[in-house]
Amino acid sequence: MGRRYSELPNEFFEACYWMQSREIPMRVAAELAGIPISTFHRNYPYWEGYIYDSDGMFENKQKKMISRILAHHGFKNQLIKTVEELSELTTAIVQYYNKGPGESRLRGVQEEIADVYIMLEQIRKQFMSDCELKELIEYKLDRECSRIEGRYHE
Description:
Layout: H1 10-20, H2 26-32, H3 37-43, H4 60-73, H5 75-99, H6 103-127, H7 130-148
Helix pairs in contact: 1-2, 4-6, 5-6
């Protein structure tokens, strides 16, 4: 059985960060740390699509476009734009909830989710590495599952 993400050696995260900065897939970092991909993936099924890709859900072409957009508008402006997009997503969800499902409301929520993903990826790079994000997600998911199971006490 594989190790929990939080129990992985620091070398794994160092290798992961170094490789991601060079667009080398995560599976290589796992292999170098001596963690079989099949075991790692089986223990972390919610990482499907992430463990094999160095930067989550975006393709190389999309990553370059995101970087270009950030460089053009600047980090400060994109912080404010992120808040705007989050607000638009909130509004779309409230409309969907209050008025009920409808094709246009569903499409509105979908488009705002896409906008938020793009904006979060732009600002995320300024705050944390891919590995740091994945480690925090692991921690947050574990904590919430423990709460559900009644094992977590703050």
